[in-house]
Amino acid sequence: MIVKKLHDMGVKSEHAYLAAFASIGLTVASWAGSLKLEPGTGLARADRWGLFVGEWAPTFFGLGLALSHYEQNDGSLTGAVHPLREAG
User: Fold this and answer.
1) What is the pLDDT of residue 47?
2) Could you give the CA distance from residue 85 to residue 61 in angstroms, rounded to a whole number?
3) For residue 32, which of 54, 15, 13 has the smallest C-alpha distance?
4) Are 31 and 49 in contact (CB under 8 A)?
C-alpha cells in the first residue's frame, strides 16, 4: 500500500503536514506572482494558477492523516474497534 511504502521510505506524517502548509503558501505566491508577472493575462489566469496549486494541500493533509494513523497503530492500516463501555 502507498502509506506503508511512504513510511518505509522514511516519510513521516509531519513531512506531509509541512508539505500541505507549504502548498498553501505556494498557492498565494503563485497567484500573486501570476497576477504581477503576467499583467496582460488578467485575474482569471492568476486564479487558475492559485487553484491548481491549492488542490495539493488536501492531498498532503490526507496523506498526513493516513501516515499518522499508521504510525500510531504500529504499522497496522486498520484500526482496532473498541466495544462501548457503559458508564457507571
Assistant:
1) 82
2) 32
3) 54
4) yes
**Structural domain of 39:** 8-72
| Helices and strands in the chain, H and E counts | 4, 0
Q: Tell me if 32 is assigned to some domain.
A: yes
C-alpha span between 50 and 36 (Å, rounded): 13
> Alpha-carbon distance 23 to 29, whole Å?
9
- pLDDT tens figures, 31-72: 888 777 777 777 777 788 788 888 999 999 999 999 999 988
pTM of the predicted model, to two decimals? Answer: 0.72
pLDDT at position 80 is 56
Total number of domains constituting the chain:
1
Q: Tell me the CA distances in angstroms from 44 to 23, 41, 55, one per residue in order.
A: 20, 8, 17
